[in-house]
Every structure is written in structure tokens, then in C-alpha cells.
């Protein structure tokens, strides 16, 4: 009975700018250190190398979104470039994930595209891949438009499709051949644009997975739901889809035993590893997805 109010509460906190500003001063408190791999590039890459040693592949995300000035966006772009350099220098098995609002999307679309070209070009030099995280619904079409523009020049960039959006089935059809991460969705959206019932979201999620796999497109199945994972395993066996065409993805700090078990079974398992001091919005969205994860926060609070 309390789950929905708790979700709404955490989503409210995730968008609270005053709390986010204060959190940057707190450091990784309230359990955040369990799901955020440090505040610096070096600490994040060190953790990636430890995960690689367990057979896990990774993607690094420098946390942050909604840059309000060009200076902030350029600083974020430089961090993305430095992260790619650090991945290459360490020989890490790791991609880059990013949010375009952090790179100036709300300031100027052309300015954001310029930043993206610099980042994707650097990744291309290193034979690496950049994943554009999907943000809230108001940025969905912009994201796909910019992706299409980048794909004219680069084949090492993809994005994320969220199963709770009504439009996602048509988006998947239009994006065949492009590597996609498929997720259920983590933002609070209205019933006009997004399914609200878990059963409907789960049903649509599996439909998207099947459609993208059957098109021959590389598919990243990002979920902690072991029921869906088992259904994917059965589906790929029945349709003779090779393990090289898909991977599972999970968040850093969640279901770590299952992550290692999937590696032992011969599947590619990629861990989404966030880092940085702008961690509050990310952490609150994780709480909203599964309010029982609030135990992380409580343990962190009482350990201070």
C-alpha cells in the first residue's frame, strides 16, 4: 500500500535542486557509495578493472544532468573525453554512457551535437562505444533526432529505449540495426505517454526485446528481473540467436551474485558503473524504482 507514495517521494527528491546541491557537499553518504563507484575517474576505472577481473564488462557514466551554462556543459564534455582516455590507458573492457542534458541539450541543440561529435569521435579512435542514456519524455524525440544525425558519421553510438513509453514499439521498428539498451524506464511520466501498470510495462518490455533481437540487431537487456532474464535465455535458444548478438546489463551494486553467475553461464554481462559527485538524482531514482532499496540509505545514515 505504501509503495506508490514512496516512489513518488523519491522521484520528488530526485528532481529537488536544493537537495542535489547539498548532496555534492555531503560526499557519497546515505548508502550511495554502495551504488556509485567513487567520485573521480581514477576511482571509477579502478573499480571497472576489478569487475573486469571477474569477467564482467562495464560502461562508465559520469553522473550529472541538466547543465544550465555552456561552461558546465563543456566541463562535462571534457570529463567524458578524459574518461575515454582513462579507459584506453588502463586497457579496460568498458564503454561510455552519458546524458545529453549534461552536454548542453537544453542550452542549444547544435552546441550539444558539437560536444557529442567530439566525444563519439574520440571513442571511435579507441574502437570504443558511446551509449546515449534516455532521459525524461520531454527529451525523447530530441535524443532520437540527434542519434540519427550522429549515425550519419559514426557507427559507434547508440541509445536507450524505455518500455513504459507508448511510442517505444514504433521507435524500435525505426531503429533496427542500431545497438540499443532496452530498459523498463525510471522517470515519472503521465498516463498520456507512459504505461503505469507493472504488468503492462513488463509485457511491452519483453515485446521490445524480442522484436529487436529478431531483427538481428545488437540488444542490451538491462534488467535485474530474473524472470525476464530466464525468458530471454529461453527465447534466444528457441530462435537460434547467438550469445554474441546480445548482452545483459545491470547496475553497479545490485544483484552482484547474479551478475557473476551469468558470466559463468557464458553470457556477456555489462555493469553500468556511475561515478562523480552529482549522485543524488541518480540515487533517488534507484530508490524510486525499488523503494525497498531504501535499506541502502538507512544503513548509510546510521553508519555515520
TrEMBL record:
The keyword Oxidoreductase applies. Pathway: Amino-acid degradation; L-proline degradation into L-glutamate; L-glutamate from L-proline: step 1/2. Residues 45-296 form the Proline dehydrogenase domain. One of its GO terms (molecular function) is nucleotide binding. SUPFAM superfamilies: FAD-linked oxidoreductase (SSF51730). InterPro entries: FAD-linked_oxidoreductase-like, PRODH_bac_arc, Proline_DH_dom, Proline_oxidase. GO terms for biological process: L-proline catabolic process to L-glutamate. Its cofactor is FAD. Pfam families: Pro_dh (PF01619). Binds 1 FAD per subunit. Its EC number is 1.5.5.2. FAD binds at residues 134, 162, 184-186, 198, 223-224. Substrate binds at residues 99, 285-286. Keywords: FAD, Flavoprotein, Nucleotide-binding, Oxidoreductase, Proline metabolism. It catalyses: L-proline + a quinone = (S)-1-pyrroline-5-carboxylate + a quinol + H(+). This is proline dehydrogenase. It comes from Bacillus taeanensis.
Amino acid at each position: 500500500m505504501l509503495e506508490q507514495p514512496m516512489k513518488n517521494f523519491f522521484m520528488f527528491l530526485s528532481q529537488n535542486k536544493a537537495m542535489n546541491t547539498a548532496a555534492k557537499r555531503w560526499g557519497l553518504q546515505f548508502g550511495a557509495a554502495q551504488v556509485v563507484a567513487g567520485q573521480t575517474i581514477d576511482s571509477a576505472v579502478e573499480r571497472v578493472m576489478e569487475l573486469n577481473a571477474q569477467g564482467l564488462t562495464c560502461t562508465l557514466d559520469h553522473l550529472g544532468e541538466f547543465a544550465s551554462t555552456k561552461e558546465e556543459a563543456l566541463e562535462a564534455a571534457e570529463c567524458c573525453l578524459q574518461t575515454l582516455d582513462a579507459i584506453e590507458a588502463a586497457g579496460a573492457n568498458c564503454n561510455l554512457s552519458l546524458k545529453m542534458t549534461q552536454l548542453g541539450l537544453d542550452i542549444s541543440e547544435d552546441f550539444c551535437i558539437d560536444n557529442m561529435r567530439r566525444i563519439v569521435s574520440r571513442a571511435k579512435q579507441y574502437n570504443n562505444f558511446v551509449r546515449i542514456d534516455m532521459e525524461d519524455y520531454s527529451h525523447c524525440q530530441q535524443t532520437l533526432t540527434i542519434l540519427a544525425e550522429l549515425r550519419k558519421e559514426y557507427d559507434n553510438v547508440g541509445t536507450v529505449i524505455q518500455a513504459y513509453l507508448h511510442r517505444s514499439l514504433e521507435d524500435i521498428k525505426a531503429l533496427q540495426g542500431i545497438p540499443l539498451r532496452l530498459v523498463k524506464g525510471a522517470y515519472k511520466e503521465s498516463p498520456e505517454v507512459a504505461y503505469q501498470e507493472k504488468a503492462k510495462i513488463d509485457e511491452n518490455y519483453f515485446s521490445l526485446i524480442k522484436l529487436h533481437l529478431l531483427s538481428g540487431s545488437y540488444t542490451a537487456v538491462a534488467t535485474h528481473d530474473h524472470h525476464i532474464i530466464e525468458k530471454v535465455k529461453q527465447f534466444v535458444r528457441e530462435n537460434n540467436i547467438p550469445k554474441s548478438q546480445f548482452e545483459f546489463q545491470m547496475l553497479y551494486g545490485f544483484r552482484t551474485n547474479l551478475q557473476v553467475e551469468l558470466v559463468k553461464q557464458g553470457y556477456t554481462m555489462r555493469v553500468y558503473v556511475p561515478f562523480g559527485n552529482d549522485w543524488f538524482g541518480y540515487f533517488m531514482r534507484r530508490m524510486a524504482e525499488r523503494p525497498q532499496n531504501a535499506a541502502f540509505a538507512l544503513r548509510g545514515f546510521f553508519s555515520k
